[in-house]
Specification:
Chain A: The chain crosses the membrane at residues 12-31, 51-67, 74-94, 100-124, 131-150, 170-190, 221-241, 256-289, 301-317. Chain A: It holds the Pfam family BPD_transp_2. Chain A: This is ABC transporter permease. The complex is a heterodimer of chains A (331) and B (502). Chain A has helices spanning 2-31, 41-66, 74-88, 92-95, 101-127, 131-150, 160-167, 175-193, 195-205, 207-212, 217-243, 254-264, 276-295, 300-323; strands spanning 155-156, 169-170, 173-174, 245-246. Chain A is mostly helical and 331 residues long. Chain A has one domain (36-312): ABC transporter involved in vitamin B12 uptake, BtuC. In chain A, strands 1-4 form a two-stranded antiparallel sheet. Chain A has a two-stranded antiparallel ribbon with strand order 2-3. In chain A, strand 2 (169-170) and strand 3 (173-174) form a beta hairpin. In chain A, helix 2 packs across helix 12, helix 7 crosses helix 11 and helix 13 (276-295) runs antiparallel to helix 14 (300-323). Chain A is globular, with a radius of gyration of 20 Å. The mean pLDDT of chain A is 89. The N and C termini of chain B lie far apart (52 Å). In chain B, a hairpin with a 2-residue loop joins strand 4 and strand 5. Chain B has helices spanning 46-53, 76-81, 99-103, 118-132, 147-158, 177-192, 204-210, 233-241, 295-302, 325-330, 340-344, 351-356, 371-385, 401-413, 431-446, 458-464, 487-494; strands spanning 8-17, 20-30, 35-39, 61-66, 69-71, 84-87, 165-169, 196-200, 213-218, 221-227, 259-268, 272-280, 284-289, 310-315, 318-320, 333-336, 364-365, 368-369, 419-423, 450-455, 467-472, 475-481. The model of chain B has no long low-confidence stretch (mean pLDDT 86). Chain B folds into two domains: 8-241, 3-Layer(aba) Sandwich (Rossmann fold); 259-345 and 419-494, 3-Layer(aba) Sandwich (Rossmann fold), CATH 3.40.50. Chain B is α/β, with parallel strands linked by helices and 502 residues long. In chain B, the strands form five sheets. In chain B, strands 6-7-8-3-9-10 form a six-stranded mixed beta sheet, sandwiched between helices. Classes of the chains: A mainly alpha (331), B alpha/beta (502). Chains A and B meet through helix 9 and helix 10 of A and helix 10, helix 11 and strand 18 of B.
Chain lengths: 331, 502
């Protein structure tokens, strides 16, 4: 019975996605401003591709949140990693390397993400200050670094080899989509099959019990913050390989979109419960909604309003389904 | 007193949840000035009954009477207005607010324009506190009070209305013996005023000390009411569990082995000083003392959760340095903590994952955890400890207290420790499971484990221990063998009476 309910809960986000698809392809196509049907293959491929930047971050955020923490600095890390990647390719010694500069620039960018994450993790571990506060500070601080680099000016470098790679399609899917799915697979294995994943759930659910069981909570935190820093940078690498230009404001609010996707997927803010696959569902649900509302001609403001309302409605529904009849206090 | 109208009467209360008949025709009454015990194992329906009384659940059938008047309870607030108030086991106080604000929470006296009448608030509060004979005042911050005093604030809150019936749910669970005495005085004071008391507890000694009648629930059914003076523990136990329990002490029937653990002059700041003892293989060493005597802190220090400020720990004759639980586990020390829900279990995880948590590192095949190895361990200890669960996928949070405790014990036994420390092995566990856990501890000792049992319950310490260390205020007062210990000399030792005997 418990498992049946659990399955239902985990499946809910996919049911929601089907509902959206049905809505936009039946009603949406009537109102549509374009003559292409919503469910067109190309359109769906685009949904997947455009889910990738926030999706990759949201998948990492799931690990952080199951762990009982949160990371608000991912948007700033995203922008910082993008700058490192694009700018490093203009350095003289890098230019001398020709296309070999590309993997090196990627490594620089990913290292940046890992280092930023490690900073967060070490502070959370060693000071015991709540991750919310630490990463709030980091969010401001890292963003400050972004602005210090080039003022209000965008940082640009277009490398056509890179653009070709980013726009390539393999087995029909875009490069960014492969990164999204690959990240999801690796993190799913990490969270369901490995000791690290088991410990993440245990720590998020009951930190004291985890300490008593001999789990090193501090180092565990650092690994996870390094992981999400890496993923924020990976997201930047995938996205800016194609666009080639980063504004200092890029990635703002990404942390909140990532958290929205994670929460839509059913992961608990308090930690200890959640699933990578459901977050993937949450990411897709948001992107389909954006795409679908755009399909029927709604503007960005309307899209945000609708997503906000749906997020609250989903959580209210979740609470009603899960708490009814447990003799909970009325407030 | 017997022919007065009851202050509270229940008639044929039935409450069903989907698939469960949680209460099945419960009827009893509480007379004015009476202390009426309500007993039953966990899951017998006591909590549901209290929720029905407090208006949180509406009964499907039956009627509640307050005095002569039939009432339908719709909320705790309405129950309170009718004069039925609850002192819950888990205190629900706002630590940052004052005593007065807590006692009148939601009902602060007001002046014009909605301003709080602070003077009246403090005066009313102090008047109530005076009747409770406590040493704090209306303006004290609740967070600064001891648990016992916080409970007094809860009682004070009940007295802000003139209660007709007060329901105490496990009031002594976290009180020391001297604090209990104070509580019992307060209860006696309420009795004298003609208030009817329902007293819910697992503790037989208390029940027989302070109650007039005992009503027993089993599996949601009312099993009868007896006069306390006309019955005994055996009879009540039989009513509760449908069979009698062997509560006698198990004799020491095995040879003790070598010294497994020796502690010399261990100290940790102000918490405890100069603690020395030896623990043999196959022996159960009981630690008894009041709450705050330093017993749990000693265990936590040996387990590496606290850093000692002085002293040595020797395992099998070798001195060891233990800086963290990881070191402790590696040296073969395991700790079953005091609070299994907060410190022992990951309630949102299944039984198997909880049991293998400390050793999951060693159960891997390549990068992944091996399902088979985990299930093998779970099955082995489920059978060994007789853990009743539908399967390893069951969330630990859904198990009964006794089975939860067995999961924690299984978790640490599966690490094959030399020394097993069990802190409060049966806190919040019903009578039937209690004796199972006691037998289990004895059995573990017989198998050669060196076991330390820390307990606040004297019968428990007396029953399971081969030797008992009595602690007072951070110091070891005396060590007793099972032959020389009596309830009297044990109480004297833990309350600081008599000279320290090394």
């Amino acid at each position: 019975m418990t498992n049946y309910k659990d399955m239902l809960k985990r499946g809910a986000i996919w049911g929601f996605i089907l509902l959206q698809l049905a809505f936009f392809s039946i009603i949406g196509d009537q109102l549509s401003v374009s003559d292409q049907p919503f469910l067109a293959y190309d359109n769906m491929l685009l949904v997947l591709k455009q889910s990738a930047p926030i999706g990759i971050i949201a998948l990492g955020m799931t690990v952080i949140m199951i762990n009982g923490n949160i990371d608000l600095s991912v948007g700033a890390t995203f922008a910082l990693a993008a700058i490192v990647m694009l700018d490093s390719m203009t350095w003289p010694f890098m230019q001398a390397l020709g296309d070999w500069a590309i993997p090196l620039a990627w490594i620089f960018a990913l290292m940046t993400g890992v280092i930023m994450g490690a900073i967060n993790g070490i502070i959370v571990w060693k000071t015991g200050v709540d991750a919310f506060i630490v990463t709030l500070g980091a969010m401001l601080g890292f963003r400050g670094l972004v602005f210090m680099f080039n003022g209000e000016q965008p940082t640009s470098h277009l490398n056509w080899t890179l653009v070709d790679f980013a726009e390539a399609q393999f087995l029909g899917l875009h490069t960014a989509t492969w990164f999204l799915l690959g990240t999801a697979l690796v993190l799913w294995l990490l969270m369901t099959k490995t000791v690290h994943g088991r410990n993440a759930y245990a720590i998020g659910n009951n930190r004291d019990a985890a300490v008593n069981a001999g789990i090193r909570v501090g180092p565990h935190f650092i690994w996870n913050f390094m992981l999400i820093g890496f993923l924020a940078a990976l997201s930047a690498v995938v996205f800016y390989s194609e666009s080639g230009s980063v504004n200092p404001n890029d990635g703002m609010l990404y942390e909140l979109w990532a958290i929205t996707a994670v929460v839509l997927g059913g992961t608990k803010l308090a930690g200890g419960y959640g699933s990578i696959i459901s977050t993937l569902g949450g990411v897709l649900a948001i992107q389909i909604l954006r795409k679908g509302l755009g399909h029927i001609g709604a503007d960005t403001q309307t899209v945000n309003l609708v997503i906000g309302l749906i997020l609250i409605a989903v959580l209210v529904l979740d609470r009603q389904l899960n708490r009814k009849g447990h003799g909970e206090l009325k407030i | 007193m017997t022919d007065q109208t009851p202050v509270l009467r229940l008639e044929g209360i039935v409450k069903t949840f989907p698939g469960v008949r949680a209460l099945d025709g419960v009827s009893f009454d509480v007379r004015p000035g009476e202390v009426h015990a309500l007993m039953g194992e966990n899951g017998a329906g006591k909590s549901t009954l209290m929720k029905v009384l407090g208006g949180i659940h509406a009964p499907n059938e039956g009627q509640i009477f307050v005095g002569e008047e039939p009432v339908t309870m719709t909320s705790p607030k309405q129950a309170k207005a009718k004069g039925v108030v609850f002192i819950h086991q888990e205190l629900s106080l706002a630590g940052e607010l004052t005593v007065a604000e807590n006692m009148f929470l939601g009902e602060l006296p007001l002046k014009s324009l909605g301003r709080v009448d602070w003077r009246k608030l403090y005066d009313d509060t102090d008047a109530i506190l005076k009747t409770l004979n406590v040493r704090f005042n209306a303006k004290t911050r609740v967070g600064d009070l001891s648990i016992a005093n916080q409970q007094m604030v809860e009682i004070g809150r009940a007295l802000t209305v003139s209660p007709r019936a007060v329901i105490f749910d496990e009031p002594t669970a976290s009180l020391t013996d001297s604090e209990k005495v104070v509580l019992f005085q307060v209860i006696a004071g309420l009795q004298a005023k003609g208030v009817g008391i329902i007293y819910i507890s697992h503790r037989m000694e208390e029940i027989f000390k302070i109650t007039d009648r005992i009503s027993v629930l089993r599996d949601g059914q009312y099993r009868g009411t007896v006069n306390t003076a006309d019955t005994n523990e055996d009879e009540v136990t039989k009513l509760m569990i449908g069979r009698s329990l062997d509560l006698s002490r198990s004799p020491v029937s095995h040879e003790l082995g070598d010294v497994a653990l020796e502690v010399k002059g261990l100290a940790c700041g102000d918490l405890f000083q100069d603690v020395s003892f030896k623990l043999h293989k196959g022996e159960v060493l009981g630690f008894y003392g009041l709450v705050g005597a330093g017993r749990t802190e000693i265990a936590e220090t040996i387990f590496g959760l606290r850093n000692p400020s002085a002293g040595q720990i020797l395992l099998n004759g070798q001195e060891v340095q233990i800086h963290s639980p990881i070191d402790a586990v590696r040296h073969g020390i395991s700790l079953v903590p005091e609070d299994r829900k907060d410190q022992g279990l990951v309630l949102g995880m299944n039984c198997r994952d909880n049991m293998t948590l400390p050793q999951v590192d060693d159960l891997t095949a390549g990068p992944f955890v091996s399902d088979g190895a985990e299930i093998a361990i779970f099955d082995q200890y489920r059978d060994k400890l007789d853990i009743r669960t539908p399967g390893w996928r069951q969330l630990v949070g859904n198990l009964s207290g006794g089975n939860q405790q067995k999961i924690v014990i299984g978790k640490w036994l599966s690490m094959r420790p030399d020394v097993l420390i069990v802190d409060e092995p049966t806190r919040g566990i019903d009578v039937g499971s209690k004796s199972e856990i006691h037998n289990l501890i004895r059995e573990l000792a017989a198998q050669g484990y060196a076991v330390i049992v820390i307990s606040s319950e004297m019968p428990e310490v007396l029953r399971v221990s081969d030797r008992i260390v009595a602690m007072f205020n951070g110091s070891v007062m005396r060590e007793f063998t099972s032959e020389e210990v009596t309830e009297d000399n044990l109480i004297q030792a833990i309350s600081g009476m008599g000279a320290k005997v090394a």
